[in-house]
Amino acid sequence: MLQIHAIKVPFHIADLDYKKLVSFISSDKREKLSRFYYKRDTYRSLLGDILVRLFLWEHFLIPNNQIKYSFNQFGKPQLKLPFPFSFNISHSEDWVICVFDHKNVGIDIEKINNVNLQIAKRYFSQIEYEDLISLNEPMRTKYFFDLWTLKESFLKCIGTGLYRPLNSFTIRINKSTISCTEDSHVLSSDLSFQLYNFDCHYSLAACAYSKLPDKIKMIHFDELMSRMRSFTF
Asked: Which of 36, 78, 102, 136 could form a disulfide with 41 if both were Cys (CB 3.0 to 4.6 A apart)?
């Protein structure tokens, strides 16, 4: 079942479309959206929620009023469903990404910008930092963001988020092989990692206990609105 869906955030959402989408989300979520200063932040948060609801409807016929969120001890959102289901959302600038599976999953996307090596020195393990500074630009910039998204996806997959320090484990990227260790010991042989090159201006990584797909399902905003017409409360 493991799938990854992506939607490009529109520069502007028409008022009628926005009101339609907002009508599907919880009152708590609506209140949260009202606190965003920038409209694009509102769009990103809203579209992430909608992608989850649409997936549950189209794959499991779960009505909207039966979609209830809860949170683990680290604040990771989860759903109260009568079957195993895991999801994770990430967004950055133009993109919202969601991953779905029956086992724990994590995903992270970051816009590629300039690299601050002091951030790498503070938050990466010593091995990761040494791997990074051994590279020349522009390889160093891409490697930094690939490493960052891999580490974030791992923490989101195991459910701790940044409650577990980023430098408490080491990820190494060797061509098509990605390893994750702690004190030189593999953290879990069941975990799989993957980097996706779907937009040259972003790094996108996923972590899962199932085999990750090779491709991401792209959803256009107009397609999303069309598919939402069949969604029931």
From this structure: 36
Give me the tens of pLDDT residue by residue for the chain, a chain 233 residues long.
899 999 999 999 999 999 999 999 999 999 999 999 999 999 999 999 999 999 999 999 999 999 988 888 877 888 989 899 999 999 999 999 999 999 999 999 999 999 889 999 999 999 999 999 999 987 999 999 999 999 999 999 998 877 788 999 999 998 778 999 987 666 667 899 999 998 999 999 999 999 999 999 999 999 999 999 888 77
CA 115 to CA 94: how far, in whole Å? 20
The DSSP output letter for 66 is: G
Cα–Cα distance for residue pair 181/201, rounded to 1 Å: 28
Cis peptide before 63 (omega within 30 of 0): no
β-pairing, 69-71 vs 77-79, is antiparallel
Instruction: Please name the residues in contact with 196: beta carbons below 8 A apart, sequence gap of 6 or more.
Output: 4, 204, 205, 206, 216
DSSP label of 159: T
For the chain, the first-to-last Cα distance in angstroms comes to 24
Asked if residue 51 lies in contact with residue 58, where contact means CB atoms within 8 angstroms, the answer is no
Q: Which residues contact 11 (CB under 8 A, 6 or more apart)?
A: 40
Please state, in angstroms and rounded to a whole number, the distance separating the CA atoms of residues 183 and 92.
32
pTM of the complete model: 0.93
Q: Which amino acid is at 169?
A: F
Q: Which fold has domain 3-228?
A: Ribosomal Protein L22; Chain A (3.90.470)
Instruction: Please name the amino acid found at residue 120.
Output: A
